[in-house]
Amino acid sequence: MDTGVTVVGSGQVSGTPDVLRVSFGVEQVAPDVAAAVARVGERTDAVIAALRGRGIEASQLGTSAVNVYQDYKEPDAATGYRASHTITVETKDLTGFGALLNAAVDAAGNSLGLHGLQFDIEDKTELLTQARELAFQQARAKAEHLAELAGFSLGSVTAIAENHNQFPIRRAYNASKAVDLGGAINVVPGDSSVEVTLEVHFAWA
């Protein structure tokens, strides 16, 4: 049986976001599947064209979900089919959300839904390094304290397990339909954080 002590340390570091991700959904209901899919395709193409017109490159656009299903209503109501297409936009322009939203609304009207937005940090390497160092410092301090309480001397590290999480700033709007905005909505990014948790086993000296 291994002797020693196992402790958990955590470190969290914040940074300034440099990426904005926005998810737009286009949805249509029609009497048959083909019509629903066709209408969603037309409006999705219009939204993509509008976003490209605002300077968004093809590499910054991507489909994140496509759904087609029967639209269930009251008994005896006409059968319909609902189709939807969700597009995710990634941009470095953190102030351009309002312009993108208005362009998408102009292109799709009430077929558009805003599923959410997220501010994030593209390269978290340095933040993870700093958080890892803080986590190990905390783990060692805990282990030294426990060793002192138990009357032992702390030895070498024999095992380390790491987990890390990120906490980007999110804004979710879960609206099923867009509205006439009349003007741009400006959003302000906050800090984005990463947290590293280390489980460290120290042997007794």
* C-alpha end-to-end distance: 16 Å
Measured by DSSP, the beta-strand proportion falls in: 35-45%
Task: Give the domain tally.
Answer: 2
pLDDT < 50 stretches: 171-182
Task: State the name of the first-level CATH class of the largest domain.
Answer: Alpha Beta
CATH homologous superfamily annotation of the largest domain:
Protein of unknown function (DUF541), domain 2
| Overall geometric form | elongated
- Summarize the biggest pleated sheet: 5 strands, antiparallel
Mean pLDDT: 88
Q: What's the β-strand tally? A: 8
Structural class: alpha+beta
Strand numbers in spatial order across the main sheet = 3-4-2-5-7
Say what the CATH topology of the largest domain is: Alpha-Beta Plaits
Rg from Cα = 25 Å
**What percent of the residues sit in helical stretches (DSSP H or I)?**
25-40%
The H/E string reads EEHEEHEHEEE
